[in-house]
Design goal:
This protein is of the alpha+beta class. The protein has one domain: 2-Layer Sandwich (Alpha-Beta Plaits), CATH 3.30.70. Helix content is about 35%, strand content about 35%. It is built from two helices and four strands, in the order E-H-E-E-H-E. A hairpin with a 4-residue loop joins strand 2 and strand 3. The longest helix has 12 residues. The radius of gyration is 10 Å and the shape is globular. This is Copper chaperone CopZ.
């Protein structure tokens, strides 16, 4: 499992938006977002750059 810090999530809707963006991505088999801890965890073979781009396209920012 890979974990990233994602800013700008503030509610369950935000969590679902990010989770949906990642599970729609080829190579991601599971994803969970948590607005309380500002984290996104995912499993799979997707390239990290593609995951970051999907989160960005959903309107959220991956912290460095």
């Amino acid at each position: 499992m890979t974990e990233l810090t994602v800013t700008d999530m503030s509610c369950a809707h935000c969590e679902q938006t990010v989770t949906d963006a990642l599970t729609d991505l080829d190579g991601v088999t599971d994803a969970t977002a948590d607005a309380d801890t500002d984290t996104v965890s995912y499993e799979g073979t997707a390239d990290t750059d593609a995951v970051v781009a999907a989160i960005d396209d959903a309107g959220y920012t991956v912290a460095p």
